[in-house]
């Protein structure tokens, strides 16, 4: 199994989105790459510096890192700084965070291809994961528990491969 950490605005929708894909074995939402250890949701909403992030565990024999990033770029605005949809603030920044240095050459190549496609410098961070703290239980699989919850990702994107909840 491999893992990648993806920040793409509100983590509720990102988790639901990635849960649908065959080869994604587990997801968990949390707070990444901020200065404080173990922040609360209130800390993060108060500009703690963490990004709302989903940890994506995947089987590379069933889904590639390239395919995961293709999906990722499908549901974010890669040029938007600290904003996705109606969500604004540093916690909604976009980022691709890795823990395995061997992923970096492929990540750089995929990132550069997206930058060329956009014709501009991306606002998406590409960096090693500094830290990740799981979010509170009520945030895990939130849109499954609260189907009417707000999400910047259009609902049609939640059924690309299989129902997630």
Descriptive report:
The protein is an alpha+beta fold. The chain is 26% helix and 24% strand. Helix 4 links the parallel strand 6 (94-98) and strand 7. Helix 3 packs parallel to helix 4. The longest helix has 15 residues, at 104-118.
Could you outline the blueprint of secondary structure elements for this entry?
Blueprint: E1 2-8, H1 11-19, E2 24-32, H2 41-45, E3 51-58, H3 65-74, E4 83-84, E5 87-88, E6 94-98, H4 104-118, E7 125-128, E8 132-134, H5 142-145
Parallel strand pairs: 6-7
Antiparallel strand pairs: 1-3, 1-6, 2-3, 2-8, 4-5
Helix pairs in contact: 3-4
Q: Total number of β-strand segments? A: 8
Task: Characterize the main sheet.
Answer: 6 strands, mixed
Summed up, the domain count is 1
Q: Low-confidence parts, pLDDT < 50 over ≥5 residues?
A: none
| Helical content band | 25-40%
Shape: globular
Strand residues, percent: 15-25%
| CA(first)-CA(last) distance | 22 Å
- By DSSP (H or I, 4+ residues per run), the number of helices equals 5
**Structural class based on helices, strands and sheet pairing:** alpha+beta
Strand order of the largest sheet: 7-6-1-3-2-8
Overall mean pLDDT score?
95
CATH class category: Alpha Beta
Radius of gyration, in angstroms, nearest whole number: 15 Å
CATH architecture: 2-Layer Sandwich
SSE pattern: EHEHEHEEEHEEH
CATH superfamily: Peptide methionine sulphoxide reductase MsrA
CATH topology: Peptide Methionine Sulfoxide Reductase, Chain A
């Amino acid at each position: 199994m491999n893992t990648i950490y993806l920040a793409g605005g509100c983590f509720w929708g990102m988790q639901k989105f990635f849960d649908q894909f065959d080869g994604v074995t587990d997801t968990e939402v949390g707070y990444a790459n901020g200065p404080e250890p173990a922040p609360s949701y209130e800390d993060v909403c108060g500009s703690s510096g963490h990004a709302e992030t989903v940890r994506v565990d995947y089987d590379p024999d069933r889904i590639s890192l390239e395919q995961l990033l293709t999906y990722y770029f499908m549901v974010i605005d890669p040029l938007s700084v600290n904003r996705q949809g109606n969500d604004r603030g540093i916690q909604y920044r976009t980022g691709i965070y890795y823990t395995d240095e061997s992923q970096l050459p492929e990540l750089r190549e995929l990132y550069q291809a997206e930058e060329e496609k956009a014709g501009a410098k991306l606002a998406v961070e590409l960096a090693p994961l500094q830290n990740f703290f799981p979010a509170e239980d009520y945030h895990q699989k939130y849109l499954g528990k609260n189907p009417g919850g707000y999400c910047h990702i259009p609902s049609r994107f939640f059924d690309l491969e299989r129902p997630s909840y």
